[in-house]
What does this fold into?
Amino acid sequence: MMRALYTGASGMNAQQFRIDVTANNLANANTTGFKTDRAEFEDLLYQALRTPGGTSATGVQFPTGLLVGLGVRPVATAKHFSQGSLVQTDGQLDLAVEGEGFFEVTLPDGTSGYTRSGSFKMDSEGNVVTADGFALIPNITIPPDATGIVATVDGNVSVQTPGTPTLTNVGQITLVRFQNPQGLQAMGSSYFIESEASGAPLADVPGSNGYGFVRQGWLESSNVSIVEEMVSLIMGQRAYEANSRSVTTGDEMLNTAVNMKR
It folds into this structure.
């Protein structure tokens, strides 16, 4: 069977995967804290018809081999954790991380989730939670009589209350980093969870030891570049068409070979 049929089909599958990843990036161009994915590929095994350095029947060494590649396959989707631009909202519980680090929240199963989306709210008890209702870690509770909330760049959270001339501290925000953030497992809704590849979470105060700063009244937008994604989309489409053409060509060649006896 002609190798071009299977090789071209593997290329079509790979480009379809690339377009799927690109489409997801474009769909999340306005998602707070979203990080771009990049599809990565590797070539498949090679069929060695003659190995490099082999010896011919006359005893002469071949300087090159005779190898035929068998296609391509997706091998990874790498997250790019570059900083997204900050958008001012003036929301008292809108927080952006400028630099490295994730906010840590408690997921419904009791485990920790990590996010760059700092669009926080208050629940009925005054706890600072995400839009999905997941509590921030460490837990911060805003008193019911608070008239203002102040979060400093180092994560210190204070409130203004009636009759009190000074601010009252109600908690400390910490940020979490990982040895290999690309090893985090994306869970959707802008959350990540720890994996064996990411390493254990390392928590510290914002602004110390290389951790980012917390900016109150700002949100980090997606780091998706619309222009780059559109170029990737066009390139993927063209590569898909080219691979489909190699399948068509292989089929026509087989058809020619079959009809030779007629």
